[in-house]
Amino acid sequence: MISVEQPKNIVIVGGVAGGMSCATRLRRLDEKANIIVLERGKYVSYANCGIPYALGNVIKDEAKLHVQTSEKIASWFNIDVRTEVELVAIDRPNKVIHVKCVGNKNGKLHCDIENISYDKLVLALGADAFIPPMKGIDSEHVFTLQTIPDLEQIQSYIATHGCRNAAVIGGGFIGLEAAENLRLLGLNVTILEYLPHIFPPVDHDMAVPLQKEMERNGMRLLLNARITEITPTGSNKPSQILLNGTDPVEADLIIVSVGVRARTAIVEDAGIQIGKSGVIVNDTMQTSDPDIYAVGDMVETPHLVSGHPVRIALAGPANRQGRLAADNICGLSANYRGNVGTAVCKVFDLTVGVVGLSVEALRSMGRGDKTKYLTIHPSHHVGYYPGAEPMVLKVAFEADSGRLLGAQIVGKQGIDKRTDVLAMAIRAGMSVEDLEHVELGYAPPYGAAKDPVNMAGFVGGNILRGLMQPVYAEDLVKEVCFESGDGTQERRLPKKYQVVDVRTPEEFCKGHLIGAVNVPLDTLRRSLHLMDRSKKILAYCQVGYRGYLAYRILKQNGFEAVNLNGGFKAVCVGGYDSLID
Amino acid sequence: MISVEQPKNIVIVGGVAGGMSCATRLRRLDEKANIIVLERGKYVSYANCGIPYALGNVIKDEAKLHVQTSEKIASWFNIDVRTEVELVAIDRPNKVIHVKCVGNKNGKLHCDIENISYDKLVLALGADAFIPPMKGIDSEHVFTLQTIPDLEQIQSYIATHGCRNAAVIGGGFIGLEAAENLRLLGLNVTILEYLPHIFPPVDHDMAVPLQKEMERNGMRLLLNARITEITPTGSNKPSQILLNGTDPVEADLIIVSVGVRARTAIVEDAGIQIGKSGVIVNDTMQTSDPDIYAVGDMVETPHLVSGHPVRIALAGPANRQGRLAADNICGLSANYRGNVGTAVCKVFDLTVGVVGLSVEALRSMGRGDKTKYLTIHPSHHVGYYPGAEPMVLKVAFEADSGRLLGAQIVGKQGIDKRTDVLAMAIRAGMSVEDLEHVELGYAPPYGAAKDPVNMAGFVGGNILRGLMQPVYAEDLVKEVCFESGDGTQERRLPKKYQVVDVRTPEEFCKGHLIGAVNVPLDTLRRSLHLMDRSKKILAYCQVGYRGYLAYRILKQNGFEAVNLNGGFKAVCVGGYDSLID
């Protein structure tokens, strides 16, 4: 399977995840090839995912981030690794790249500008942190947190300036990790998020518990933040982040993490096809030039749920793409199979996991009407075994076929596990009903005979088969109306509903939906004659199960009914406070 | 979809996992049916999986094991629950069962023997703990641990007899859980296992770390134990377990857990078809009598990997089968899709997970020649994030197609997660190569950009594509020969191998394979001229990766080579001590 031609010149530009995975796989497949890796930075093959945790001293020894040194790569893999060398241009007709030394010009090249010829070129240029254009963004106390030099600069700035108030602009992955780690250093931290909620891969109701967890840990959140300017740092007056419609935020350290942009300029100049967000590649990672491959944060690959090309800036896909490019360069047939967008993130004591698309994302694609979803609140293992922790699990699926479209999970324990299980289900093209049947490991310390994933299957299967009709808190919130009388205003749900709380009186007294009457489940069958048959009954309980039982009793007794998805807990967890009495 | 005929009489015999799941689903689907649940024991719907942990006071409040009370089931589900009622016979022609009161005859029936007619009968009789026929097995200090009365009897016996030395006969799931929990009570515990290793669902090399963990926790293991007799307890002399070929074991408390046998006698008497290990059912859980369904520990269902019917005595399948039987009784089409045999078990600080078939099981089915496997030792999350714990992951697959056949995992953290992910892969019919492509959630606290599951895919894919040829420690052990000289005897591997350790000299000095020479990987390319080209090189490193790199270098330089599967660590972990110098 290995080519027996003349040694190939293979040049890889970019020496971190995708580039280095490609280079080492190439060597394993082809002992004879000339393999050159060019890296713009000082370091190759370092663990950039660990950088936020090194900032917070969670990872105490920064040296641990250096997975491989250039020397080790050279000795194990016989690869010519050149750091602080930057790509300038690609001369495709002559199969040559122009590169230049950056940094301290320490003899990594023979001259300042050098030409390197290639038989195959692999581009793993990565992505640049996006710097939103605003006044003051170039101040000395404003940083990004993407590379080891970024980390070192922030650490040194904190050490020399004694920072107390930090601001993180952007509440995505890196923003949350950066914010948490700054907080661990003892700083006051404010997160400024442009959108209505943090962590955009999940829906609003799933972001709310994350937001509460951050606030519980002493952080401040500014949502819908419209930053107009960052004022300079001065000896008398600290720097301020000025906002439209909100008071300024004081910050003597600012980290900007509002996403990344693929480094495509040079590639585009060379006439290689670029898509909406990155370099276009086929499933062998080949660009529009068959001798040029591209991998990692700079490319677009298909999202298996949306069907659209997406740029996924994560180490896992980058590593696999690099390896696949090497396979294909060496004549092994191997195809990239697209993404399901699995991700997991720690937020203090919580974990959030996500795979596929959120309901908000599906709506923005015009697929909202064809999507249903369910929310459940199972424990991560059986409740009778010590240490059971609750989770919120939200699963979206196609309304007609049941095909899984996405899952979001938040909780303290077992979140990464269910995320991965659901990632497997989505990759395998399973339907929500299929989740009923999956056979997951159970012993009391680990799960339940009906795992949360099975439970999602049961609930989703019921919705799909028409055995249960959910009503969603986010829709009810929009239907809240106000009734005036005696100079007071009262919130209520539309009159079309009889709102029936089937929990116990004790539960009811601690809080319930506006306008609800309490008919405990164990009295429901004998209370049917008290109900108004002309009105739809909105049944609910704490997490949805007794509400579902009530729904089944009501429907089979001739009532129109709906069951509140996820129960009263989903209202509380999701922050739908205006529904609560 | 719901039947609109006359109310059905549905009788369910057995009120724990499968039976009660069936009963409650029936009510949700059919508000009008007459549903009767008969349970032989005192309690329904209790969590028998928690019983070993209640014994060890890990679950401190035994009441927590009672998931549902008869009263709650009656009030929520309008189900006629009768405890302490036992099935005596099934009169199929008349669609009637004969039942009798057991226990304290507290009025659960109108008379001692009653006939109950059914339209549909669901059997969820469960399985009996198997009591091996041996002298003394019926002594008062010998117990099984299956039900709450079992638990109560053992607790009371310990309280009144002040036990110090316990023995557990059988080292399967319940045996291990029972033994660990007895140890947590401070007892000296000996496990007596008939087979050459404990925990039969896994291979010998995967059981060894479990055995070491039990010994580390002060337990004694007797493997290949051939018990001949249990001597009586006496005031002067404690009871002894007598064995063939081994000293007797003193024990003042004995728990027997050598598996269970389906309760099929009455079913067989009624002329219903019985298979090798349990009642035969189709995929709607129907027995050979279309009006009689059977679910749970008493039935055989197909194993998706072996293709053979198996009896799986676990709560998860029982629950799903009960629910499915209800669906089918109510006219909803739902099919049981067979088992992949996912299981997980805690052994002190370790977790063992298993899915599919072990290599030993595949061999016993005559499929050994068509099976390959791989062993890896990844961390449960990236090494640079604090708290990374190693695991051993063994994956078996079809030698030609790569189809996944089984996985076994042992370690401290993240074991249940990978077990479930691999259970999804096996259920989806994936090949070992497919594991390369799966996209699992990664952030430093949870995994790695190349998750252990991906790593298994990389290694398996390499084996499948002929890019790496493994040699297995279990085969090498059989090839160890002895050379006499000067009155001494020396172990060595067959002369056909040059055994080359490619680790560092420091690693080599701490222990290596017999007859190995040390050629560190970073010197290998310049040492090739020193190697004997006429001999196959057995390359190895610590966990297999550098050995694989060495293998690739050697093969591409014209050498015959093999790489030790799982490296030196697999030799140590798997207990292949005779290979170590």
Automatic annotation (TrEMBL), chains A, B:
- In Gene Ontology terms, what is one molecular function of this protein? oxidoreductase activity
Tell me which cofactor or cofactors this protein depends on. Answer: FAD
SMART domains the UniProt entry points to: RHOD
The keyword Manganese is assigned to this record: no
According to the entry, every stretch annotated as the Rhodanese domain falls at 493-573
The UniProt record lists the keyword Oxidoreductase: yes
For this UniProt record, give its keywords in alphabetical order, as a comma-separated list: FAD, Flavoprotein, Oxidoreductase, Redox-active center
Q: What does UniProt give as the signal peptide span?
A: none
Q: Which InterPro entries does the UniProt record give?
A: FAD-bd_OxRdtase (IPR050260), FAD/NAD-bd_sf (IPR036188), FAD/NAD-binding_dom (IPR023753), FAD/NAD-linked_Rdtase_dimer_sf (IPR016156), Pyr_nucl-diS_OxRdtase_dimer (IPR004099), Rhodanese-like_dom (IPR001763), Rhodanese-like_dom_sf (IPR036873)
Q: Which family does it belong to?
A: Belongs to the class-III pyridine nucleotide-disulfide oxidoreductase family.
User: Which protein are we looking at?
Assistant: Rhodanese domain-containing protein
